[in-house]
Description:
Helices cover 38% and strands 21% of the residues. By secondary structure, the protein is α+β, with helices and mostly antiparallel strands. Helix 8 packs antiparallel against helix 9 (207-220).
Amino acid sequence: ETFAAMGVSGIAQHEAKFQPFINEWQRLGLTELLTKAFPDDEEFDLDVDAAIPAELQDLDLFDVIGNEVWVAVSASRTNPLPAISAVARVSPEAAAALEQALEREAADGEFQVLTEGNIQFRVGAESEFEDPVALAIDGTFVAVSSNPDVLRGILRRYQGAAEPNFHDSRGYSETVAPLLPANAVMFVDLPHVVDLAEPFAAGLGFDASIDRLARALRTFGSYASVTRITNQGFETLSLQVLGDRNVDPALHDLLSTNVPASSSAQAFVDASAVSYQATGVNVSAWWNYISDLAADLPEVGIGNLNDFLSMNLGLDLNEMLFGWMGTTFA
């Protein structure tokens, strides 16, 4: 039921590699500088001390994310409202600090204490919290979810229940599993999103447009990207499993065509550059696809996107920009 997930594991084993960057961040006082850059009346507030509970402020970053942390978004046809959940293995110090913070919050607010198997978990009372969060701590294992029923499922699996999980899903087995081991993982399964949303979007008056967008998302398929920390630096790998070509041939061809990146762009890079990346992509073909996609959304009513911009804004982006771009983007 998970259609998007991000996770990190084994980061603490590489703490020495990160320490010089952490030391430099602290030496420069970047957190304090960023806080001062945003006035108190700004909507975006970077007051770290106010945002982090007092019990957690003395913890090291690796106490929280050093072992393993996963964040996932899930939904099902029987429970279509997406739930955001997180599970983590934290340090004993972080677990104790979380327990203290939770006890303090429980004393100040209204919480229900429920049980799943041998583990107690707390849920904020409906009268006090608009969107109650359910949270459980068992030793160094921490689980939290926006849906108490989803948390119950997490706790059942944690205690050994033989229920289907993320590892059993087709998206995971086809994209994430072949790329492991990894220290960081990102996963998205767009066909699963379509399966969930399509029944609820039917009959809203946008059926043709919804069907066209659904075909594009099904063709995009599922995607995973992983990062490994090596002695030489970071190594990133990705894998995308496309849908049936007959559903959206134009998009399938764009995604499956291997466009090699040219090294010619390096001639324009300064010798003092610390980073350089070149990607092979047919920008003009992608712009034409997006323009045609807009034309295939009748309820939106803008027609071909390039023609719409040309008529209403006097901008012919195909002629001004995309039409003459090559196949290397650097």
